Amino acid sequence: MVGITLSPEQIRSAPPEVRRWLEEEIAASLGLRVHGIENLPSSGRVVAVSLDEARAILASIRGMLPVVNVFFELGRKGEGPGPQGLVVLSLAKIFTHARLSTIEQVIAGIDLINTATQKARQDVSCNLCLVDSRGLCVVAAQTLDSIARLWQEIALEHGPPLHGAEAAPERAAAPSFEMEGPVPASAVHFGSQS
């Protein structure tokens, strides 16, 4: 374990994502939970999405891998469910897990996901999720479950067989290879060359 001491000035001058992360870590270490959503956009409502609707939304965004990554992050366990069956997710965690370059990319992905949701529902007032001013993302618990189930379906469909090669004979076995003899010195690039 490593300890770090930060002055109040350092914390105040840190980027918003870092301050949110510090807040979450301090709250978690004290056994507190960050509650409440602040300043949600008033231009829409969060809707619960079924598994079939989640499939339609994924089909709409399938060609945009970063957006697909954000979509599946909305299926991770969050804080809640709270009032009205809503779950709170952290934009900072979505950002980290989706491996994007900026929080703005996460927000742009959420905007595209919400647009796909509105098209699937044929309702411009509905959103799969909303983001508050502190960087917390609100999703309906049913939506989170639908996205998680969709991820599991896809993983089972495209993943390795669960019970050996006989469980999925239609899948070709991966080619095997063996390497004999020493590895040539030119193939090893660890450290400095003498």
Give the helix level as a range of percent.
40-55%
Major beta-sheet overview: 3 strands, antiparallel
Give start-end ranges of low-pLDDT stretches: 165-169, 187-194
**How many separate helices?**
7
Overall pLDDT: 76
SS-derived structural category: mainly alpha
Order of helix and strand elements from N to C terminus: HHEHHEHHEEEH
* Distance between the amino and carboxyl termini: 36 Å
- The total count of strands amounts to 5
Radius of gyration: 22 Å
Shape by Cα distribution = globular
Q: What's the structural domain tally?
A: 1
Strand order in the sheet with the most strands: 2-5-4
Percent of residues in β-strands: 5-15%
Tags for this entry?
194 residues, mainly alpha, 3-stranded antiparallel sheet, disordered C terminus
Task: Explain what the structure shows.
The chain has helices at residues 8-13, 16-29, 51-61, 65-73, 91-98, 103-121, 141-158, and strands spanning 45-46, 86-90, 126-127, 129-131, 136-140. The strands form 2 sheets. It has a 3-stranded antiparallel beta sheet with strand order 2-5-4. Strands 1-3 form a two-stranded parallel ribbon. The model is unreliable at 165-169 and 187-194 (pLDDT under 50). By secondary structure, it is mainly alpha-helical. The protein has one domain (13-158). Strand 4 (129-131) and strand 5 (136-140) form a beta hairpin. Helix content is 44%, strand content 9%.
Q: What topology does this entry show?
A:
Elements lengths: L7 H6 L2 H14 L15 E2 L4 H11 L3 H9 L12 E5 H8 L4 H19 L4 E2 L1 E3 L4 E5 H18 L36
Parallel strand pairs: 1-3
Antiparallel strand pairs: 2-5, 4-5
Helix pairs in contact: 3-6, 3-7, 4-5, 4-6, 5-6
